[in-house]
Specification:
alpha/beta; 5 strands; globular; hydrolase
Length: 248
């Protein structure tokens, strides 16, 4: 990732954040904010150290955004997610929503994602999409590639919209891939090629979530071959304590 231009930092600190907050405040729905706050307070998944990774229900998700820096005003333009359980259910449910951001969407993002200006302008507000995502993924472990980006982006956006603290239980499939395949190309494209997965149109949030889910399934099989079968085994791999799958 390229260094953040200092002029952009100054522009955001002294102008953009105030302008964005003003526009955002006009879109905020107090009733919906209360609903989301309640959802966040109840958002959890019951886990034990003996829980089999193959029998855990995951929500694999992907975000398309206006940039890499949510703390400098970048926003989400779409969210895609697939719910999966390797042993019981395979890709039974999907989630896809387009978000209409407060700020302008750069032209290269339209080209990259294939979204049109009309689609984005007709999208829902972040708080509405986030509420739907919480409902969809409730009771599951989140997975993203890399989770350090996608989960953090949602956390920053939830804070910006004054919705509450978002502290999901999640696993980073990129970390697992790097553990299993050190010094290899473990970005999504590289893994899609390695596992001979159908390469769908990239940078479409639902397509990327689908491919990540298929990649993650293969990674779970490889973990199983190494004797990493349960959430407890995964926690040992990560050096985490019981109940702590949060990857900072």
């Amino acid at each position: 990732m390229e260094p953040i231009p200092s002029l952009r930092v100054l522009k955001y600190l002294f102008y953009d954040r105030f302008s964005t907050f003003y526009q955002q405040k006009k879109r905020m729905n107090p009733h919906l904010r209360n609903i989301v706050s309640q959802q966040l307070a109840q958002y959890h998944v019951n886990l034990s150290l003996e829980q089999s990774l193959m029998e855990t229900t995951f929500t694999v998700f992907d975000l398309e955004t206006t940039g890499f820096y949510p703390k400098l005003g970048d926003e989400i333009v779409s969210v895609g997610a697939i719910k999966m359980n390797v042993n019981e259910i395979k890709f039974p449910e999907h989630f896809y929503e387009i978000v209409s951001p407060i700020g302008e969407v750069p032209n290269n993002i339209y080209s990259l994602t294939g979204l049109s200006e009309e689609q984005v302008s007709n999208g829902k507000t972040f708080d509405e999409v986030f509420s739907k995502f919480l409902k969809f993924s409730e009771g599951t472990v989140l997975v993203a590639h890399p989770a350090s980006f996608d989960v953090n982006f949602l956390q920053v956006m939830a804070k910006r919209w004054q919705l509450g603290l978002f502290q999901p239980t999640f696993i980073d499939s990129y970390y697992i891939a790097n553990y299993l395949r050190p010094k290899k190309n473990n970005k999504l494209d590289g893994l899609v090629s390695y596992f001979n997965i159908e390469n769908k149109q990239r940078h479409h949030a639902l397509n990327d979530a689908q491919m990540t889910a298929e990649v993650f399934t293969q990674l779970l099989y490889l973990l199983q071959e190494k004797g990493i079968d349960t959430l407890g085994d995964y926690l040992k791999l990560r050096g985490k304590k019981k109940g702590d799958l949060l990857i900072k």
